[in-house]
Amino acid sequence: MYLYFFFFFDFFHTILESLNPRITAKNFERHYTLKRTDSYDGLGIYISTDAETRLNHRIRDIEPNSPGSRIGLRVNDRITHVNGINVENTQFGDVLVLIKQGLINNNLQFSVINE
Question: Which of 36, 46, 70, 94 pairs with 63 at a CA distance of 20 to 30 A?
Answer without folding.
Answer: 94
